[in-house]
Please model this.
Amino acid sequence: MMRPAGSIGRRLTLLLAAIAALLSLLSWGMVSSFSGQAAARTQDNVLAASVATIAETLRSEQGRVRLELPYSAFAMLGAISQDRVFYRVSIADETLTGYDDLRGGRTPESPGEVLFDTLDFRGETVRMASISRVVLAGRGSVPVTVSVAQTGNGIAGVTADLSRRAAMMSVAFFILAVALSAFAARASLQPLNSIAQAVSRRGPSDLRPIRRIAPRELEPLVASLNRLMERLGQSIRRSEDFITEAAHRVRTPLATVRAQAEIALHTVTGDEEKKSLRRVIRAVDESSRSAGQLLDHATVAFRAEDLDRRLIETSELTKSVVESLSPTAEMKDITFDLSVEATPIRGDAILLQTALRNILDNAVKYSPPETTVKITVRRANGLAEVEICDQGTGLGLGPAQQLTERFKRGDNVAGVVGSGLGLTIAEEVMRAHGGTLSLRNIDEEGTGTCVLLTLPLA
Amino acid sequence: MRLAYLALGLSLSLSLFAQIALAQEIDVEAQRSYPGTSERVVRVISTADLNIFEPFLQQFQRSNPEIGIDYTVTSSTELHRAITQNHAFDLAISSAMDLQFKLANDGFAQTYRSSVTEELPVWASWRDLIFAFTSEPAVVVTYRADFDGLVPPATRQDLIALLRENTDQFEGRVGTYDVRDSGLGYLFATQEARSSDAYWRLTEVMGRLDPQLYCCSAQMIDDVASGRLAMAYNVLGSYAAQRIEEDDRLAILELEDFANVMLRTALIPSAAENIQDAGALLDALLREGMRDVHDSWVLPPLSDAGAPEPAAFGPIRLGPGLMVNLDQLNRRAFLDAWESAMEQD
Model:
């Protein structure tokens, strides 16, 4: 198993969380800055109201500029915060009243205009509003400037408080965003997971294209997966063709060799020659059988990948296989004892024939002459069962399962030729059909073997 | 060598002279030292009379015997001047809220924070610079005999009517603060003028009665007690209450329309040297200000200001609004109006 290269879900969550963190930070900064500006503007407005209220009281009395500081002008400043307040009323450079050293602000050009300045006064930074008003005094009009300054501790406190609240809200927003990101990541990956599940639910030989409707982003993946499966399917079909072709190519010359050897056997007279020709025939037979089995095995391996599931009557199938092997059995005077009942199943007739033929072939091969091979087709326990019992040498004392392994043969058959593929083929066919193959000795001495095949009923 | 000594002596005596000259600039009404067991001394400048403050100072020294106290009594304007000229005082206590506030606003006070200052109600302190520890109403003190047989006035309107109807009886026998001299008198007058239009009419009525003008509450109460005055207007309630307890010739006239409530405040001047002990003394003062028992000291606690009596208004607000009346133009205008009302004929 390869180590996965990270998780898309986690990556998506982390990315979204990072974005959320950035946005939270940004919104905190913005809210803080806005609240600071709002607080500063509030102070400016109150300062503006204060200077305007004072300027309202400016008047001329006996040719001199007079004013009366209204209580409200300062009370309104005290109402919003505990900040220090300074003020100055001046005509040009001459201080009429207030703090004489409160200078440095700009002088408004036009009457009614309020100018704001930030300056240092007596060791503290103050915000100052100034307004000008023209008062008729004596012979001419005199421009009078009213300035009110206030320290910024109050707005600093308000800003800090709002900033802290904004920070708490941003953190809450971030936590919520992370939770939603995790949810969103999982929801987005849902189609991918469902396609993966659909693919993994498929049988090992199911190479049909994926028909599921995929999100646009997954379409290339599904398309290439489908293309891959199509190529795989083509390649498998080519292999099958190749195997069929190979079977013909191998079997036909072997048959020719055998026929020629038979003819030669009849024409030669010397015992030595006849003996060696019989050895040739036997070797050719063996090769032909082995080639047949190898090809059977290959056929099974490929056909099992894409199993045909047609309705088959087991009894009929068994009968036809028994009939096809009867001539071989007769040569050894072996009798087939066949008893059947109706057992419909679904499967690949060619594979099932191959399996039965291999088992029967084995039975005939390992049975002594003049014995009976008993074949029973029945329904039992809701399954279709085919039992083939012979009166041969049995399985020996080795473990029974090993005999179904490829090229494995029983330890008591060294004298008989065989490839050891027969049971392997049969078992693979059974497995492909969801059935089983089991072996047992009939009795303790090891004479006679039963092969039991089970298959699900149709 | 001799010359060096001479120079040293000369410079020493010069600096001594300078110090004396500086100290003499303040018009001191009374001064008393309460030495402690150590060298540490807190120099207090205050407008409160010694006999009012002494019980508190002695109580403080019982729990802090090592701290000596140097207590100087002066008027509120002198106190303001002393602090603005950076005279060496460690704690300034005054009844003139406006002047105290201006000191704090103008940077002559330094920040002080302690567990005690944090317990104060919000309205009783400003920027941790200035702290209130009493709430004292302005009252009318009367010579009881003069009001026998008269319907006691309940409002300023009633009082105006009463004075108008009994001109002969009150001629030359009405006393009040000379607001030109007394910072507290000025504070009471300006606040009252802001709160009620009756103030100016009352001032005019009093002006016609040849009013006696005083610098301080104590003298006014003395003159009422002796019968020289029939009525003293805007007297410190705390002083009056103390005197009435031992002198039944005096009575307090309860005016129901409103009462000015002044907060006596303390601050640590920026020129203070013994800040630590000044803080200890301030904490003790504020603890007195937050006490529940009313009668343990003549100066009433802060909680009196919040007493939900129908006649009682909230205390004068500690805020920049106080500075309005200290503005030289406003002050001039107010005093002009006051003088023309008070000094008729």
Observations:
- Chain B has two domains: 26-135+262-313, 138-261+324-342.
